[in-house]
Design a protein that fits this description.
The chain has helices at 3-8, 10-22, 25-32, 36-50, 66-94, 106-122, 175-181, 228-236, 250-254, 284-296, and strands at 55-58, 61-64, 98-105, 127-134, 147-150, 159-167, 169-173, 204-210, 213-219, 242-245, 259-261, 266-267, 270-277. It is of the alpha+beta class and 297 residues long.
């Protein structure tokens, strides 16, 4: 056994420390739940590997040699350092520290998460929070994030999911648009209107429900975007009809800048979820954030 290999044998080193502390093979064996002969064998193997004598027997019990004293002090320092590390590791689970990286759909990040994150961060001075916005109709990027908030499951493996609930949508346009083009009375009439969809080509299906029955209407339009804020700005300028989350246009509806239609028909809601690593020992920065978001959304 090489010198390095001997020092990596934690079982023998731990036995040595116990013998040095207890000054007795018998008492050390009792602490280690083994026999004095096993303790003696381990010490002999350690001394043979190191090529030095670590222990001397005397009428007062076990006495450390100079080499034994040096190894004992060194290993005790190593154990103290290890204890400090393990304490810090536990604190990572009990006290949020470092940087929490959150990725969320753009408009949900702006309207819902931003005020929550401000409150969350103020109560945790040792934690930094970075919020990254992805396209409203997009999927999570390949960058590393601690938490992802989205309506579509990321393709990243090994994620746990918590459902935050439905996201009600609303179909609306500006009063100016309805004055110029008329207001559709039924969802199927949307086919005759300029609908600002979320994809740059082809048709887009908008879903509606009456009771247990659902229907889909294929819409199209001259303008599109993968960002709700842009679609809302287009609608405010009278460019067409949009279908967006209600939370994104709350103020526009209140001040009559945008007018909802089909309020008596349930517009199928997406569900928003929070995704985070599936692990037994979840860092407290992630666990705290997940609990906080679930509580206030």
């Amino acid at each position: 056994m090489s010198l390095t290999a001997a020092l990596r044998d934690l079982n023998k080193l731990n036995t040595f420390v116990r013998v040095a502390e207890r000054k007795s093979f018998t008492r050390a064996a009792t602490d280690l739940r083994t026999t004095p002969s096993v303790v003696s064998k381990r010490m002999k193997e350690l001394e043979d590997a190191l090529g030095v004598s670590l222990l001397n027997r005397s009428t007062h019990g076990i006495v450390l040699t100079d080499a034994g004293e040096g190894l004992f002090r060194t290993f005790v320092q190593v154990l103290a350092t290890l204890d400090d590390y393990l304490l810090d590791a536990r604190n990572l689970r009990s006290e949020p520290v470092g940087t929490l990286r959150v990725q969320a759909q753009g408009e949900f990040a702006r309207c819902i998460l931003t005020p929550l994150i401000v409150d969350f961060s103020q109560a945790r001075p040792g934690l930094r929070v970075h919020l990254s916005a992805m396209p409203d109709y997009g999927v999570a990027s390949d960058d590393v994030f601690d938490v992802i908030v989205a309506s579509e499951k990321p393709s990243i493996p090994g994620l746990a999911r918590m459902d935050l609930g439905p996201v009600p949508f609303v179909v609306c346009a500006s009063p100016e648009y309805f004055r110029r083009h008329g207001k559709p009375g039924e969802p199927r009439e949307l086919r005759d209107h300029n609908c600002l969809a979320n994809q740059y080509s082809g048709l887009k299906n908008w879903e509606f429900r009456r009771g247990a029955r659902s229907s889909h209407v294929e819409v199209k339009g001259a303008l599109s975007s993968d960002n709700y804020s842009i679609l809302i700005q287009m609608a405010l300028r009278g460019a067409g009809i949009i279908r967006v989350p209600r939370y994104a246009i709350k103020s526009e509806i209140q001040n009559n800048a945008l007018e909802p239609i089909f309020e008596d028909i349930a517009i199928s809601a997406e569900r928003i979820c929070i995704y985070y690593p599936k692990t037994e020992y979840l860092p407290s920065k992630i666990a705290d954030f997940v609990d906080f978001v679930q509580k206030y959304i």
